[in-house]
Amino acid sequence: MASKREREYQQRRYEKWQQRQAQHDAARRRQRIVAGSVVGVLVLGIGIVAAVQATGDDTPATAFASDPATTAPADPTPSAAATNAASVPDKALAEDRTWTGDISLTQGDIGISLDGAKAPQAVANFVTLAQDGFFDKTNCHRLTTTGIYVLQCGSPDGTGTDGPGYSWGPIENAPADNVYPAGTIAMARVGGDASSMGSQFFLVYKDSTIPSDSAGGYTVFGQITSGEDVLKAIADAGTTSGTETPVHDVTIEGVKVK
Predict the structure, then answer these.
(1) Can you list the domains of the chain with their CATH numbers?
(2) In sequence order, which ranges of the chain are alpha helices (DSSP H)?
(3) Rounded distance, CA 126 to CA 1, Å?
(4) Using omega within 30 degrees of 0 as the cis cutoff, is the peptide bond preceding 68 cis?
(5) Which helix (H) or strand (E) element contains residue 140?
(6) How far apart, in Å, are the Cα atoms of 190 and each of 56, 137, 194, 197, 201?
(7) Residues 43, 165: contact at Cβ < 8 Å?
(8) Which of 104, 134, 195, 240 is the most exposed place for a label (fewest CB within 10 A)?
(9) HSE-up of 59 (CA within 13 Å, CB side)?
(10) Does the pTM exceed 0.70?
(11) Among 35, 185, 214, which Cα is nearest to 98's?
(12) Residues 142 and 244 sit within 8 Å (Cβ to Cβ)
């Protein structure tokens, strides 16, 4: 039988999850209201029906091009204008220092080092979510094996269609040459939207050139320090035929940072 301390811990995690879900639902409602108002103005003002690319939590891969295997990682969280800015962790929490820890996957542990000086908002966000247990028991939903070589994680439901209920920007510490070396840890975002980062991140297992888009590059906030063999084994196993889903479930058992 679970101890009192364990029951209290589980209750706190459940309450945090409920809070994130409430923020998530509120953000989606605000986004729909804003999107509806904008479309109404366009139709009434200039009589043109425009095709609007959705970036909300309902639509997976809406920022992907026709060949998703070579597209940059996307995190379809709500636009920053439609979220509760107070929910975004204060970048001061990164403390302008290096954080270390590990990501425990079902396949093994990956050691990480996070640069709070070069990417304070990304590090503050990742550390806060990790300490809240946000990533625990979530699946890494996307493995790209052509053009770019990344494992993408951080989607609460493991589909790549959701996030923490808020989004943030701007882009931090993007490489000027668009090259993301093996071992890079970076934030996913919606194409063309520098303020659409949330919880999804990607681990680069092979040197990748990811072209910048109209918003810029991708926030690099850390490096893999050990466990490269774990990541390579996941990549070598490949994906389910016709998909970008890892052939074996890649589950984050927990994330520790200090």
Answers:
(1) 68-257 (2.40.100.10)
(2) 4-46, 120-131, 228-237
(3) 33
(4) no
(5) none
(6) 10, 24, 8, 7, 12
(7) no
(8) 240
(9) 13
(10) yes
(11) 185
(12) yes
